[in-house]
Structures are given as structure tokens and as C-alpha cells.
């Protein structure tokens, strides 16, 4: 317990002290995320908050973890280093989606091959239990990469990705601590402490964004934690077994996961690359209906938290039923946004020149003679 509290204190303190320094350096070097038609901020803001998050997370882990108790943690740290440099380069120089994807596959390879993180059983979802080795590997790669990208894509309004990451890592950390796995609890709470400090500067009005450096890091750590949770919580040897662990793990990451899958589906249906940017995310839908950044963040986090509580209380039910219920609730929410809260109609104000031109055309005015102009002058 002491190591967990120490990891929170260290990660929070380092991130809290690092973020103002990052903001100052970014202002001196003019490293800003400039507003455009697709983005929701109106002034230049630095996207390098991930530097502070990563610093707090790594120091919190390295100073409190006992690697002799869980040697695979060192490989998880190595995978976050890959993600860190990948995200940092994208925040500063911008890299192509294919290069970003290759970097994510490399990080997933380290997590799966060296860290021994793998989904080996569906735990009864769709009536499937033990998985063949090849299908297990493919499913794990898919799950890790989707979770990594889900936090990257949900990072669209102030405080949203950080708040969802704080929620998920706190829940995973509490569970791992309760079943006597302090190394994974430290991994979770180190990131939670960093995100808590970061949100002080990121909540509306944001002074800094986490950027790809931060959002990819949050996704990577959550990918590790959710797969480990699904594998461990369903075993009989733990002090608090959960039969429906895939349903609960899925629900903990419900908002970023389902929104990413929905947006990917929309893009594929329109014959566009899955990683092409647009304004179809759930936070864009709410922004278009007049919600503020703060209200969007609080609303989505509250919905996620309520669903976690409901699924946890119903954990004795069939895993397939629980997961499909989460799907139904989420897409009912999307349908409600579309049909019960229609976006306001936008009216474009005409310029004075356009109005004068239309008036001239409608009235067929004739130009004044020179004598009249001279008389008026």
C-alpha cells in the first residue's frame, strides 16, 4: 500500500511541476497546435502535455516498482518508451498513419511477446472459452492496437481523454491492489497520479493538450491493464474472482472503445481510411448541440461510471448479455443525440457587399449622374 501511495505522490508531483515548464518552453519555441476547421480550440495551444505525463508516470513506476516480483513490468515500460517517441515525433513533426501504426504494432509486440500479455480465453463470450494460439495472438494484437488508438481518438475536448484515463486506471489499480498484485496497481496508479496533475492544466479552459504523446501512452497502459484484468479476474485462485471480467473490462473502456469502433465503421462505409480525420466523434456531436467542453467531459465520464456500476452489480449474468447490453446503451445514447437533440440550424450572415449587390439587382438601380453627385457633395 505504501508503494502505491508513494507512486501517486511522485507521479502527481513530477507532472504538476513539469507541465508549467513544458508550457513555457513551448511558448519560447512556438510549438503550438494551431486551430483549423476541424479542431475545436480557437487559440494556439501546445500539444506537448504528454511530456509531463510520461515523466511523472515513468518516475512513479521506476522509483516504487519491485521488478523482481513482476519482471514483465520492465517490458511494459519499454513499450511505453516506444509509444512516447512515436507520439512525440507526431506532435512536433507529424508522421503518416502507416508509420504510426507500425510503431503501435512494435509496442504491441513487446507487450505480448516479452510481457506475456495475451487473451487466451473469451470466458464464455458468444459461448467461446479457450482460444487457439494463432487466433489468441491476432485477437490480442487487435485489442491492444484498438485500445491504444481509442484514447488517441477520444482526445477531442478539454479534459475528456485525461478524465476517462483517470477513471479507468483508478478502477484497475483498486482491483489489482485488492487481489494482492501491487506491481500492476503501481503501474495503474502512477498513470492516474500523472493524469490527475495534468487535468489541473487541461480542464476547460485548457492551457495545454496531452497530444499524441499523452493519449497513446494512456491507451498503451490501459491496454496492458485491461488484458491482465480479464485474464486474472476470471481465475479461481484470486481473492476476488469475477466471472464476467471481459464485460467489466469492456465497460471500463466503454466510451473510447465504442466511439472508436463506431467512427471506424462510418469511415469504412464511406470508403475512407479508418484513420482519416473527421468530426463524427461523440464529443463533436455534443459540441454541435451546444454542450461545453466541461459538460461533455462530466457527462461522458458520469455515463461511463454508471455503466461500470450497473455491469459490476450484474456480473453474475451471462457475459455475452452484459456486453451486448453495453452496446445497446451506447448506441441508444448516440441515437438520442441525433434524434432527440437535433443540431441547431446555422445561418450565415451576408456581408454588406453581398447585400448591396442583391439590393441593386432587385431594384435595378441606375447610377447617378455626375451633376447629381456634385450637387450632393
Provide a brief overview of the structure.
With 377 residues, this protein is mainly alpha-helical.
Write the layout of secondary structure elements.
Layout: H1 2-29, H2 49-62, H3 73-92, H4 97-114, H5 133-154, H6 160-178, H7 182-202, H8 211-233, H9 245-252, H10 254-269, H11 282-287, H12 293-313, H13 319-340, H14 352-363, H15 370-376
Helix pairs in contact: 1-2, 1-7, 2-3, 2-7, 2-8, 3-4, 3-8, 4-5, 5-8, 5-10, 6-7, 6-8, 6-12, 7-8, 8-9, 9-12, 9-13
Can you give a write-up of this model?
By secondary structure, the chain is mostly helical. It has 15 helices and no strands. It has helices spanning 2-29, 49-62, 73-92, 97-114, 133-154, 160-178, 182-202, 211-233, 245-252, 254-269, 282-287, 293-313, 319-340, 352-363, 370-376. The protein is globular and about 55 Å long. The termini are far apart. Residues 359-377 have low confidence and may be disordered.
Low-confidence stretches: 359-377
Number of strands: 0
Largest sheet: none
- What is the H-and-E element order? HHHHHHHHHHHHHHH
Oligomer: single chain
Q: What is the mean pLDDT?
A: 86
Q: Measured on Cα atoms, how large is the radius of gyration?
A: 25 Å
Helix- and strand-based class?
A: mainly alpha
The best one-word shape is: globular
The number of helical runs is: 15
**Percentage beta strand:** under 5%
Quote the distance from N terminus to C terminus.
88 Å
Proportion of helical residues: 55-70%
